[in-house]
Design brief:
With about 500 residues, this protein is of the alpha/beta class. The chain is built from 12 helices and 22 strands. The longest helix has 16 residues. The structure holds adenosine-5'-triphosphate and magnesium ion.
Length: about 500
C-alpha cells in the first residue's frame, strides 16, 4: 500500500492484524438493509469497506441484511446493486441474511439447549417495563425459568405458526441486571406473519438484527465488520452470541456516521419524501441518493473523492455540502464538454456583421486538449441572457450596456464584451416595446477579434457572455435544481424536516 497517505484508525488496526499474523488476509462486507435506495452516507460506508479491500488486496461481500420482511423489497435490492456497480465496486459474494434463516434457527435451538435462551409470553410493554433503567436493574419473569424441553417445544410451535404476531418472543438468557441494557435478555426472534421478498411465506418468525448480523459475519468469515457508531453498545452482544455458539470470531469496529448539511439521510424520511410526492422518486435529482446524484450529473469519481476527503472519524460530525459540490465541480471541470444555453433570451443584433453564417471552431473543454472542437454557427442575430444587458449599468457591471451620456452632456461609448468563443462586440443601442421592455440589443463587431486568432485581444473586452444563434438554436426544457431544503440542518433536534423544504428547489 502507498506510504503517502496516513492510515485511518481502521487501516491501522488491519495493518497490525496482518503484521502480527492475527489474520493472513481480511474480508469486509457492506450490509445494506434493502428497505430503500442507497444515499451519500452509504457511499461513505461503501468506499470504506470496498476501499479497505482494495488497499489490502482482499475482498468484500455484499450482504443484504433482510431480516425485516415488512419494509424490504427486491426493487431496493436491484437499485443497491446498480448503484454499487456504478460507483465502480465489485463484491466477491452476494449474500443475504435470509439465506441463513435455517442456520440461524439451528443456532437458536443450540442456545435453548444450553439453557441460554427462553420463550417469553410477555407483551412488548411488559418486556420494556421489566427491562429496568440505566440506573435500576431489570427484573426477570417466570418465563425465564421455563425448562429447556418446554422452550424447545414452544420455539418449534412459534416457527410452525401456532401463534399470532407479538404473542411470544425468543430471548437470550443473559443478565437482567447487566449494566448494558442491551444484554438484559435481548430478543432473538419475533413472530411476524409477513411475506418476505425472498423466502416468501416459509417463515413466520424472523431473527432480530442482533441475532443475525454477527452470525452472518461469522458464517461468511468476515474479519473486520465495520458499522456506524450507534452500534457500539451492541458489540458485547455481538461477541456474546459468537462466543456462546463457538463460531468464527468476526470482530465489529465502529466509525462515525457522516451527515451532510441541507440534507436528511434517514431512509424513513427519504421514503416519506417519495411517498408524499415532495420529490418525484428515489432518484429525483434533488435526493441525496446515489441514483439521484447520478441523474443530476454527479460522477462516481466525484462521490468517491468526496468519501475519501471526509475521511473516517470516531466522532459524529456534519459535513458541509459545499465540500461535496466542490468535489463534483472539480471532476466535471476536467471532463465535461462545454455547451452554451440561454435561459431568459433577448435578441442581440450585430449590425455590421454580414447576412451569411460563419462556422467557429469552438473548444469542447478548455481543460482537456483531447476533448476536441465543435463547429459553432455564428451569425448576425444571436440570443443572449437578458441579465447580460443593463440599460443603465450598475457600478462594476462587466456585461453589455449602451452608450451613456453624463448630465453635462458627455457621451461615452457602449460596453465592450466578448461573445464566448467568438468576437468582441461593442453595444451601440437597444430597442424597447410599448411597455418599455427591452426587445433587442444592438451592437457592432470588431472583425479582427475572433477567438483563437492573432488579433483576438486587439480590442479589450470587459467581460465574456454566452450566446446561442437565433437561426440554429434549439428549444429546450431546462430544469434548474436547487437544494431540497433551505435549512442547513433540516431534521436537527427532532424538527419537522418537511417544514424546511425549499419551495424553489425545482424551476422549469
Ligand atoms: P437508516 O437508519 O436510514 O435506515 P441504515 O444506516 O440503517 O439507514 P443500512 O442499510 O443498515 O441503513 O446501512 C448499511 C450500512 O451503511 C451500515 O453499515 C450503516 O452503518 C452504513 N451507513 C448508513 N448511513 C450512513 C452514514 N450517514 N454515514 C456512514 N455510514 C452509513
Ligand atoms: Mg440499518
Amino acid at each position: 500500500m502507498s506510504d503517502e497517505k496516513s492510515l485511518n484508525f481502521i487501516e491501522e488496526i488491519i495493518s497490525q492484524d496482518l503484521a502480527t499474523g492475527k489474520h493472513k488476509s481480511i474480508l469486509t462486507r457492506f450490509p445494506p438493509e434493502p428497505n430503500g435506495y442507497l444515499h451519500i452516507g452509504h457511499a461513505k460506508s461503501i468506499c470504506l469497506n470496498f476501499g479497505l479491500a482494495e488497499t489490502f488486496g482482499s475482498a468484500t461481500n455484499l450482504r443484504f441484511d433482510d431480516t425485516n420482511p415488512v419494509t424490504e423489497d427486491t426493487e431496493y435490492v436491484d437499485s443497491i446493486k446498480a448503484d454499487l456497480k456504478w460507483l465502480g465496486f465489485n463484491w466477491i459474494k452476494e449474500c443475504y441474511a435470509s439465506d441463513y434463516f435455517d442456520q440461524l434457527y439451528a443456532f437458536a435451538v443450540q442456545l435453548i439447549e444450553k439453557g441460554l435462551a427462553y420463550v417469553d409470553d410477555s407483551s412488548a410493554e411488559e418486556i420494556a417495563q421489566q427491562k429496568g433503567t440505566p440506573t435500576q436493574p431489570g427484573t426477570g419473569n417466570a418465563y425465564r425459568n421455563r425448562s429447556i424441553q418446554e422452550n424447545l417445544e414452544l420455539f418449534a410451535a412459534m416457527k410452525a405458526g401456532k401463534y399470532n404476531d407479538g404473542e411470544k418472543v425468543l430471548r437470550a438468557k443473559i443478565d437482567m441486571a447487566h449494566p448494558n441494557l442491551l444484554l438484559r435478555d435481548p430478543i432473538m426472534y419475533r413472530i411476524k406473519h409477513a411475506h418476505h421478498h425472498r423466502t416468501g411465506d416459509a417463515w413466520c418468525i424472523y431473527p432480530m438484527y442482533d441475532f443475525a448480523h454477527g452470525q452472518s459475519d461469522s458464517l461468511e468469515t468476515v474479519t473486520h465488520s465495520i458499522c456506524t457508531l450507534e452500534f457500539i453498545h451492541h458489540r458485547p452482544l455481538y461477541n456474546w452470541f459468537i462466543e456462546q455458539l463457538g463460531i468464527y470470531p468476526s470482530h465489529q469496529y465502529e466509525f462515525a456516521r457522516r451527515n451532510l448539511t441541507y440534507t436528511v439521510m434517514s431512509k424513513r424520511k427519504l421514503l416519506q419524501l417519495v411517498t408524499e410526492g415532495h420529490v418525484t422518486a428515489w432518484d429525483d435529482p434533488r435526493m441525496p441518493t446515489i441514483s439521484g446524484m447520478r441523474r443530476r450529473g454527479y460522477t462516481a469519481r466525484a462521490l468517491r473523492n468526496f468519501a475519501d476527503t471526509i475521511g473516517v472519524a470516531k466522532r459524529e460530525n456534519i459535513v458541509d455540502i459545499g465540500l461535496l459540490e466542490f468535489c463534483v465541480r472539480e471532476d466535471l471541470n476536467k471532463i465535461a464538454q462545454r455547451r452554451m444555453a440561454v435561459l431568459d433570451p433577448i435578441k442581440l443584433i450585430i449590425t455590421n456583421y454580414p447576412e451569411t453564417e460563419e462556422l467557429l471552431h469552438a473548444e469542447n473543454n478548455p481543460e482537456d486538449a483531447t476533448a476536441g472542437h465543435r463547429m459553432l454557427p455564428f451569425s448576425k442575430e444571436l440570443w443572449i441572457e437578458r441579465e447580460d444587458f443593463e440599460e443603465v449599468p450598475p457600478k462594476g457591471y462587466k456585461r453589455l450596456s449602451p452608450p451613456q451620456t453624463t448630465p453635462d452632456g458627455v457621451t461615452s461609448a457602449g460596453a465592450v464584451v466578448r461573445l464566448k468563443g467568438g468576437y468582441v462586440i461593442e453595444c451601440t443601442g437597444f430597442a424597447k416595446d410599448a411597455q418599455g421592455v427591452v426587445t433587442e440589443v444592438h451592437s457592432k463587431v470588431f472583425p479582427d477579434t475572433k477567438s483563437g486568432t492573432a488579433g483576438s485581444d486587439s480590442v479589450k473586452a470587459k467581460g465574456v457572455i454566452t450566446w446561442v444563434g437565433v437561426a440554429d438554436g434549439v428549444k429546450a426544457e431546462v430544469r434548474l435544481y436547487d437544494r431540497l431544503f433551505s435549512d442547513p440542518q433540516p431534521d436537527a433536534g427532532g424538527k419537522d424536516f418537511l417544514g424546511a423544504l425549499n419551495p424553489h428547489s425545482l424551476q422549469v
